[in-house]
Amino acid sequence: QVHVVESGGGLVQAGGSLRLSCAASGFTFSNYAMGWSRQAPGKEREFVASITWSGEATNYRDSVKGRFTILRDNAKNMVYLQMNNLKPEDTAVYSCAADTVLGRNWPVGDVAYFGSWGQGTQVTVSS
User: Which residue in 51, 36, 50 sits closest to 92, CA to CA?
Assistant: First the structure.
């Protein structure tokens, strides 16, 4: 059973940085791409970033390119989201999930490709 737990959120001023972590268990982590999404109050969940099972390819939504970096450590079953130069519009609950397809070699760019999202960690960026 796939289980993910996110951590690392918090309150930060605009221009600041946060590093989110996602601990995964219950499946062969190194065989699956992983992704991050976010959901703000009253809005749809939106894709943020993904990384292939090997870590060799990544994908980002346009609004975070150049500011966010997704990383993974297959030895630790962990995926991270380094967020720099945060903006108030980045405020949301951030969640991680595993791809539904084993060994996909290209980084997907839509939340529909992923399984169940974790409960998430709150990120609040003040102006």
Answer: 36
